[in-house]
Amino acid sequence: MAIGISNAFVQLFDAEVKQAYQAGRSLAGVTRERSNVEGNQVKFPKIGKGQATVRVPQTDVTPLNVTYSQVSASMTDYIAAEYSDIFHQQKVNFDERRELVQVVGNAIGRQMDQVVIDALNAASSPSTVATSVGGAGTNLNLAKLLAAKKALDTKNVPSEGRCAVIHANGLSSLLDETEVTSSDFASVKALVRGEIDTFLGFKFITLGDRDEGGLPLPSTRTNFFFHKDAVGMGIGMNQRSEVNYVPEKTSFLVSSMFSAGAVAIDDEGIVKVSTTE
User: Fold this and answer.
1) Structural domain total, the chain
2) N or C: which end of the chain has fewer CB within 10 A?
3) Tens place of pLDDT for every residue, the chain, 277 residues?
4) CA-CA distance, 180 to 195, in Å (whole number)?
5) Chain centroid, CA 218 distance in Å
6) How far is CA 253 from the centre of its chain?
7) Residue 2 domain-assigned?
């Protein structure tokens, strides 16, 4: 006898996974994002700078001759899947569905974050802050934050829309900095909540260790301070879920998938901050 599962259940599962994925994704909204991309690539325009000139009466105007270029991100397909054995459960009941929703949704969210992290790390010529800033072999500190801010300020990067993606070990180091945690210097009560939300104009996002790779750690940790318009992300196929019965395995295959790609658009809006943990 064929084993089926209703469309209502599949729709419910898909909606729940989407909610879990959106809740588990840390880097949503911190890039220039484009949805419903057709084809295997998405292109983001990059417009150069222009300089005004003195206007001389009765002469032709001088055009700015602004350079125009574009960068492309290739779509990569991802899937998160797990089997639910019918001998363990007569059917996919509420408890197991809830567990699978969290597993699948969080896996998608982390991978979506990793797409952005990999694009940041692949930037060819970003500004850098060495691990020696603020002391040889030091973790994240105020001196490094100021250096990252200065690097963006020097490049005339807008102050609105700046983001900092740091590791949990770097957050722990920052919470030991009086200038960061004291109300005399910042209105955010960092030690009360054990986190830093906004400081020096940066929106802070803290990530821990991740199986997908997380923030790079070859020998020193790389943290990223950037403007949202400096990174582009294209989503070819938004998250969608399926539940299918596989007779050979006497199990339901629960899967969720998406297709996306990201690229560094403007290296001037990206700063790599190296820390020693």
Assistant:
1) 1
2) N
3) 345 677 777 888 888 888 888 878 899 999 999 988 888 899 998 877 777 778 788 777 777 777 778 899 999 999 998 888 877 765 555 567 777 888 888 999 999 999 999 999 999 999 999 999 999 999 999 999 999 999 999 999 999 999 999 999 999 998 887 666 565 555 555 555 666 788 889 999 999 999 999 999 989 999 999 999 999 999 999 888 888 888 898 888 888 899 999 999 999 999 999 999 8
4) 11
5) 20
6) 28
7) no
